[in-house]
Amino acid sequence: MAESLDIRALNERIEQQSGFVTNLISGIDQVIVGQRHLVESLLIGLLSDGHVLLEGVPGLAKTLSIKTLAQLVDAKFSRIQFTPDLLPADVVGTMIYSQKEERFMVEQGPVFANFVLADEINRAPAKVQSALLEAMQEREVTIGKQTFALPKPFLVLATQNPIEQEGTYPLPEAQVDRFMLKVVIDYPKLEEEKRILRQNISGERTEVKPVLSTKEIIEARQVVRQVYLDEKIEQYIADIVFASRYPANYNLAELKDYIEFGGSPRATINLALAARAYAFIKRRGYVIPEDVRAVAHDVLRHRIGLTYEAEANNVSSEEIVSKILNKVEVP
Description:
Layout: H1 2-17, H2 19-29, H3 36-48, E1 52-55, H4 62-72, E2 73-74, E3 77-81, H5 88-92, E4 93-98, E5 103-108, E6 115-119, H6 126-138, E7 140-143, E8 146-149, E9 155-160, H7 173-176, E10 181-184, H8 190-202, E11 212-213, H9 214-224, H10 231-245, E12 259-261, H11 265-281, H12 289-300, E13 305-306, H13 308-312, H14 317-327
């Protein structure tokens, strides 16, 4: 009884605290047509303190949606356009000699912002990618002999273009694992396309005003961590990840030859965090199996390694996750 009262109180608290989600979504909707899944994924990353990798062909509003989110939050935003001649110092900063001061001074790079948009991350060489990925993981940057903490909240939203192979440096699997979510963005629906056309022909530009402070985001993250996760849901999350490692144990023997490696413990942690954030967005104080299923593809698609056999048979990690979700028993 006490537990049900606790959950009811938590539900009421989340109902009050999550009001800003509606403001953020309606603010993004004024600028972006459709792409609800993309918007929700960005909010999950923001509320779970996790980085997001967006993949899609050019022109699907990846950059625009990230920029709009940064404008809606009263936070510092920076954009890094990745190119093959970029250097790590262009991302994290460098030491510059000041004649006036007669000493070397630190010039901080664009990574020192709350929202960092790493545009076309697969265009830069490994050295630059690793400089950014290190900052993402450690939340700090060392320039010369000094170490600087990155601002809070710190969110990297990276985009990559899947259609070009020339002049690109694919992110290694182990490094892609640093991203909490990998979101694949598709084309808009026909009605949405017509609305995009009308909006752009009329030349209307909606002015975006901040509706949220960084302090409120940090407070909301504390509340997201209190969202109730039942033991049965914990078991369900662990089963999904284990099924990606040992499919034969879950009556999925046909997937054994297609999976080179399954999700790491990082997948389990991120699945739980993302499900909590999704429940919060839906203004609920507890996680249900539908929340786990809603985020499973984005959390797992870049964490399952495929064998040559899978590629020869055109089996994608997307299909493997779908089969796992259909097979693993729902609590």
